[in-house]
Amino acid sequence: MILCDTNVIIEALKKNPVVIQTIEKIGLERIAVSVVTVMELYYGALHKAELKKIKRHLSSIRIFQIDEAISVAASELIERYAKSHGLQIPDALIAATSINRDLQLYTGNTKDFIYIEKISLWSI
Fold it and tell me: Where are the beta strands (DSSP E) in the chain?
């Protein structure tokens, strides 16, 4: 299973051919997202019709919730990387989910995660 960062799902919704091809290569049944990504997508929806479209597309994707282990891991990542690398809370939660669930992270913004020890980034 591969955890997709929010930017990947946004690009998929925009029908970016490279992202679509990569997701097809991985297999839709092996794609997952963090609930943080769900919230970011809902927040960024321009109107109710777009929100409905997002919800429809997410209905076939596994969503990982934040549990205590992910919360603790994200807090540790913030403590370690927020000041030195500018790690943001949503990215810390997504990274912690990836690490805690032993999932590779597929992101279009590797610079946001590359410095995190123990994270495995998806590479084509």
Answer: 2-4, 31-34, 62-64, 104-106
Token pair, residue 100, equals 């805690």
What's the fold here for domain 2-112?
Answer: Rossmann fold (3.40.50)
Distance CA 82, CA 113 (A): 12
CA distances from 65 to 19, 70, 71, 122 (A): 24, 9, 10, 21
pLDDT in tens, 42-92: 999 999 999 999 999 999 999 999 999 999 999 999 999 999 999 999 999
Dist CA 84 CA 13 (whole Å): 33
Q: Which tokens belong to 47? A: 């109107």
